[in-house]
Amino acid sequence: MLGETARRHRRDLLRLLGWSVLEAGPTLVSGALVAAALDRGFLAGDFATGALLLCCYAGVVVLGGFGARQAVQPLAEVVESLRFDLVSRTVRATLLRGVVPGERVDGRSVEGATKHTEVLRMLISQLLTVLRTSVFSLVFVIAGLFWLAPAVAWVSVGSTALVVLVLASTARGWQRRVRDGLLAEEKLSATASTTLLGLRDVVAVGAAERATRDLAVDVDAHADAVNRIGRVVAGRVAVLALGGRLPLAVLLLTAPQAVSSGVLTPGELLGAATYLIGSLDPVLRALVRVVGDIGLQIGVLLARVQEYARLPADPEPQATGSGATGEVALRGVDFAYGPASEKILDGVDLTIRPGERLVVVGPSGAGKSTLANLIAGLDTPQRGEVTLGGVPVTGLDRRWPRRSVTLLPQEAYVFSGSVRENLAYLNPDATDAELELACAAVGADELVASRGGLDGRIDSPGELSEGQKQLVTLVRAYASPAEVVVLDEATCHLHPERERRAEDAFAATGRTLVVIAHRISSAMRADRVVLLHGGAVDVGTHLELRTSSPLYADLVGYWNEA
Ligand SMILES: Nc1ncnc2c1ncn2[C@@H]1O[C@H](COP(=O)(O)OP(=O)(O)OP(=O)(O)O)[C@@H](O)[C@H]1O
Predict the structure, then answer these.
(1) Residues 382-405: pLDDT tens digits?
(2) Which of 80, 178, 262, 314 is 20 to 30 A from 349 in CA distance terms?
(3) CATH number of the domain that 404 lies in?
(4) Which residue numbers delimit the ABC transporter domain (predicted)?
């Protein structure tokens, strides 16, 4: 995931690297200039040279500050783009999994994904900020020390290697503990939010003690996990303290001997101490904090985000054929919303022929929308099966955009964006000519023209009336490649004449059209009508049902009066 963003921002990363070298520049010359200022200037009685050399150092520090300032912009480009990529991936994958039967997706999945992504953004920003200068600074310190005091440089290399070795060998255990801590925190927050949301029920059924006990278990588990992390942190801090201070201790202990024997001048001694105190120790600390702590936290969080960004599995292997003939069949379908709930559909058999215009009617709550969801594969029957072109609908290709069935619900969803983006939502490859054709067919051309054509904007969808929103979604469905279109009261806010025009337009394309009727006029122009009642279906033409079914005759009468 990170690699993809990094590839796109190669230039920004190179700019970041370049400015970071400049930012770390003062580290390279700090010890050397201090040593020269002392030996050739102040101790040699040449105050002007000493002061000039210190001024040079100050100049380099200002240049380093300029490098730090310039590095901010490329850093922000990379990090913000990374956040956008991560959020897009996780939300998209969560939504796609949401329409797959058997996948458990709720608001917490998206919330968890976005929360983790936000933390990741901050951590990666810190990682890049510290890492980019620390690595160069470390190299520069060692180089400076080799120039001034090679023996101290070797001790520094050894102690740095020791720190790296110890941290690397404990990295796995550390990562495991951080992950356990994160999981414990997630579990605690899930239990707490479930308990708090159902607080009234918990009190009503006298389960307060039980809920407290359950919560206490998760609180203890979280506390244990945090304690285990704390113990590892303590060990790592000790190693770091030893590794960072050892070279300085060696320098100070050997200083009298080294200076008196002429191995080091006083200036070189002070220069080496400047490198060690001013750079090596802080750099090692920063590196350990960043690579050891932040780096590992990033690894753990990325693994979690990757779980959220998991796309649903492709169709099951038994799903052969494209399902693209437009024939929908329900065989012995039973459906209920819960194991103890009443059946909404009870042993329903129904074949919808390719290119047929079928209208579904029935009393409120009879299960018309449920039938629409089953045809679209959004729900799975407990018994029997729903097939499309002979293939179980739940086994069809569910990659976005859905290619086989398009279901338009009553609530039309229009988002902020261009008119084109809204219309091409179910077929991003649609050409302008195809979209214009779809607009003309369903009668949305005036609306699109009034918004400034395909390039026009819909900045706040609330400006559109419900009918206008339904027109937008009708164009979407028309422009989609699906061979079966299900309109679940998707034209209820349109004038009857506009509704007829839209339905006729779909029927004229030769696709299978299933309309959950809002008005009796839809049933009157259908090839066949399905009357849904008490979990069963009666099927026939409008005239047949009118004479054979008293319930249908009642519904027609009710509609006519209305
Ligand atoms: N997600 C759900 N969970 C539990 N029960 C549901 C769910 N969705 C619908 N129901 C119930 O299932 C029954 C059928 O609902 P459905 O929406 O399919 O009926 P409908 O014929 O489309 O109704 P209407 O004409 O009022 O839109 C209703 O009793 C409804 O309350």
Answers:
(1) 999 999 888 888 766 554 435 688
(2) 314
(3) 3.40.50.300
(4) 330-559
